[in-house]
């Protein structure tokens, strides 16, 4: 009887974990997205690089136009990315941090909710160490723009 209750509890735990993963996504990716938001919140201003800010390993970061489909994003990146979301507004930020051949952190959210925006053309490689101008507006949102924008 105890074995059966234990087996049922294990099966229930597995099912709940699978449902949570399907609904919320990878716990590691959720952790990275939260860590990224906290790292962005710590930026004051001046000149910074994503290499200094981003608190996890990445090779390339991509940004996409509003309304880009997941298929378009996958084609641009050249990899399969099941967890990416499509933006539904011009007021959203959409980033995909890739390490090796997998997306390690996808950000798709309203700038006002994420509290930061990063502006660049299509992709940045870690090795390029691109410098951004960091500035906070009156609402506390961090705007990272290229030095030549």
Provide a descriptive summary of the structure in words.
With 149 residues, this protein is an alpha+beta fold. Helices cover 36% and strands 28% of the residues. The termini are far apart. About 5% of the residues have low confidence.
Features:
149 residues, 36% helix, alpha+beta, 5 helices
Give the rounded overall mean pLDDT. Answer: 85
SS field, number of helical segments: 5
Helix-and-strand structural type: alpha+beta
Shape: globular
Order of helices and strands: HHEHEHEEHEEEE
How much helix, percentage-wise, in residues?
A: 25-40%
Number of domains: 1
Write the layout of secondary structure elements.
Elements: H1 2-24, H2 27-41, E1 46-49, H3 50-53, E2 60-63, H4 70-77, E3 92-99, E4 102-110, H5 111-114, E5 116-118, E6 123-125, E7 131-136, E8 142-146
Summarize the structure.
The protein has 149 residues and is α+β, with helices and mostly antiparallel strands. It has helices at residues 2-24, 27-41, 50-53, 70-77, 111-114, and strands spanning 46-49, 60-63, 92-99, 102-110, 116-118, 123-125, 131-136, 142-146. The strands form two sheets. The chain has a four-stranded mixed β-sheet. Strands 4-3-2-6 form a four-stranded antiparallel β-sheet.
